[in-house]
Amino acid sequence: MVRFRCLPVQHWRRAWIIPLLAINVLGLAYYFSRGHVQPRFHGMTSGFSKHYPSPVPGVQGFAQTIADLWKPYVHPLDNTTFTTKSGRRYDLDPTHKHWDKPLGKDVVIIDVDTRYDPGNGPVLEGKNMNYRTAGRMNHYIYSLIHGYDYKLIHAPEYWYRHQTWVKVPMMMEALKDHKFVVFLDADAIFSEPQMPIEWLLTLWNIHDDILVALAEDIYKKTNLDRQGLLLWNTGFVIAQNSPRTLELFQSWKDCPSDREFPGCSHWNKKFAHEQAAFGNYLRYKYNTTDELRMIPCLDGNGSQYIPEKEECGGQFVQHLWSSKDVTITDLQQLVATALSRQIKDGDIARMFDALVRPIHV
What we know:
Family: Belongs to the glycosyltransferase 34 family.
Keywords: Glycosyltransferase, Membrane, Transferase, Transmembrane, Transmembrane helix
Strand order of the largest sheet: 1-5-4-6-9-8-10
Number of helices: 11
Transmembrane segments: 12-32
Domain Nucleotide-diphospho-sugar transferase: 163-289
Mean pLDDT: 86
Radius of gyration: 24 Å
Oligomer: single chain
InterPro entries: Glyco_trans_34, Nucl-diP-sugar_transferase, Nucleotide-diphossugar_trans
């Protein structure tokens, strides 16, 4: 008969300790590798983010080619008038601060997403194309046309908040290295690629004391704050670096803790998330002086594809929340226009140089 020796209770406990510890360590490692960050450890931090210099691997040559074809048509900063594709004329106000010098790498265009995976394959072709990739390509080509910096930020997931909140700490982090941070949602695109951000800063009177500028939202009851004022949409944000701007972003980031703004935790996961938090709390704290700027909905929100296009027509930045796949056709149009303009203007040599040069790189 086979006899089994019974281990004392303390031996059984000891035998289980090491496997349990190993499982816990592996579980924590997996949890953090997935980008989940617990609030009691870090709050909302940018420390687990990854930065990419382009929205798609290997796309730099193609994007630079298209940008080079657009460069001859960049709107001069000293030209005080502009007519958009839809025929609307804009004139700069001579009383506004005139940003008359290119800002170059002092400006960064950023995309932020928790879902991004660089991957491989022909992501710009056919069924592989999606609205997020097309929107980011619009942002990237725009940055190359005007000589701005660009970053695609793969942000960690914050399980205790809705994922749109990630844009707040990522913008705050980007501000530390740039004078201006321009953030766009993936379904928001630059409507006029030739228009520099400096000209728009002048148009919207974004002077040295402005902390952030956001586009007014379209009129709907769900877009009103507690006092009945229209929210400002966080799908397009311009932030200007200053100690007070960083203070604003810190307050915005911490808003749902309820420490400074009791009740803000209501917007932790409830629509409109960080947008409602800004509209209900931050803009009342910081707009007692001329520190915040509302961009007209006609200029920086909506699109030509909605019934309210006369009020929110996306003249300079379209936000395509109701027709996201238009970002794909718009990218195709951006490329086609760059080529057709060269042909129309008879500048075949420039087009040839732009297309042939990448072959030798």
